[in-house]
Each structure stands twice: as structure tokens, then as C-alpha cells.
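Predict the 3D structure for this chain.
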Amino acid sequence: MKRISSNDIARLAGVSRSTVSRVINGYSNVPPETYERVMKVIKEHHYYPQISARVLSGKSTNTIGLFWVGRSRLAMDPLTSQYFMLMVDAAAERGYLVLACFLDDLEEKSNVQNVRKIFMEGRIDAGIFIGVSNTEPLLDELLEMDKIVGIFDYFHEGEDQPHRISSNFERDSGEAVIDYLYSLGHRKIAVIDGDLSRLSCIHRHESYMRGMLKHRLTLKNKWMAYGGIEEKTGYPAAKQLLEGCMDDLPTAVCANNDGVAFGVYRACAELGLRIPEDISVVGMDARPEGKTTSPPLTSYAYDFHQLFSSLIYRVIDTIEEKPDVPQVEFFPGTLLCRGSCAPPRTE
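Done. Predicted structure below.
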């Protein structure tokens, strides 16, 4: 069956081909009755322009690429799925589609080539990256080619790149957590860091250290560990840390995020340590599961809807060449105090 063309739409609607083009591309100089007549024919015949033709003519594709790094589509957890849908919905509000690509990493050359190909073929107007390190060379390459790149959790101080748009967590969350634990009476606090190639993990580590210095607290080497960003990596880190200092236990543990904090819960259970009676635990990001852990997890919460929607909207504003689009935004959070924290026991 022959595919209907814009010429056919023009003939059936009794207008010129250029009028059909103006209707499809949303130009305002089309009389309302003409617009309705053309749209009626388009809907009746399920017509849509071929993307290659739009690209060749320099038109926008109204499509944003979403490149989720370090996450398999089949392994997406409920929280990741929620974040993904937030971005799809935000793009749809502005009339844009999302082309999703889930990549295990950007160390694999074929993954980099696929991302590069999608950009170079003009299949998308911009790309949004989640899960990349703060020094990812592919992003610099795309920006050098004048591509529009949105990034979650990425910032370089003092750099001005109008086509690089980012949304980030606030920088002082760790300090706020230390302030809270100090107010409860904790003076022996352990820190389990995350992936220090990622901006948020760097900022959380730095702000934990600022909080410790502010209150003149001692952070012993045996009270520090690297736990990644997931429970499966947080658990062995927490167990090794706690097993190594059973004779001098910290009274509180600050985890890089909730996933790592869940690993701390598991390690404490295996070692016979009660939360919060023997040790207090604090996470970050306030995952929904934290409400139902026993005890409920104290965590630092962010408005992810605001965080991701802002990223999508500012990327689209950049595509549409709107003036004064903020390149970088940092979003504040709120400490949710729950049952996993209590004043330390007095001997």
C-alpha cells in the first residue's frame, strides 16, 4: 500500500503543500478554518512526515534522547522507573517525545559509537544523560560539536557552556546530617562514601567532612569506607567497617544514599547491632522503601519531580532558542527524621 504524502494531504484538503507544511510545523499564520480542515485530513489518513525529511530540511525532530548509563532496562527498579516516567511526562507536556537508551556503561566503545550515531543522524534535538561521571569525555565531544546536552548530577565550576544544562543536588546535605547527629549527642560518626567519580558523591563526602570539622569531631580511618551507590556494594563495605571496629564502634553511620544505608541495616542485623539502640543510621535521597524498613530510615529527601522537570524544560528551552536559560541549578533537600536515629547510649 502506497504511503500517503504531503502532496496527497494538500490535494484532499484543497490547499497548497506549503500550507500543509505550515500546519504540521505549528506556524501561526494559518487561518483557523484552514488549520482544522488540514488536520481533519491528516487524522483521517494517519499521516506523519518522515523524520529523515525533517532532518534534511533542518526541522526539529521534537525528540529528546534519554541515555541512562549504568542501568539495564530489564533491571530498572521501581524508583528508577518513576524517575524515567517523570521525564517522559515532562517532555510530553512540551510536545516532545523521548527516545530512551539504557547503557551498562560508557567504557564500551560500541555504546559510545551508538550514542554518537544517534546525535549525528539528527534523530534527536538534544540528549539527556543520567549516571555519568563528572569527567565523561563523550559529553565534551558532543558539546564541541555544538550538540545540546542535559545532564543530571554534573557540574564544572567556572565553565560557561550554553548548550550544557544540568540539574544537581544541593552541596550541603552532608553537613546538615552531621549537624542533626551532633544535636542528638553523637560524637563518634562513621561515613560510607559512594562513587567519587560522581558529582553528588563528591559533594556529599565534602559536606560530611565540613560538618565534622565544624563540630571538631574526629573521623578515624577505620570509621570510613567506600560503599558505592547500591545495597549490594554498601553491605560488604558496612560489614567490613563494623567488624573492624567492634571494640570502638561509631555511634552513627552516614551512608552515601539509601541503597547503601539498606546495606548498613543488613550488616548490623548480621552482627547483632540494633538500630538505633546501638547505632544510628542516616541515608540520602529518601527512597520509598525507607518508610517501611524497621526502623524507618532517616534520610535526606529531594523533590525529584522538580529536579527532572527542570532539566527537561531547560533543555527544551535551549532547543527552542529561548533567552536566558539557566545552565545549572542546584536543588535543596529536607532531612526526614525517622526512627533510625536516636541519642547514643550512655555507658
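The longest helix spans residues 78-93.
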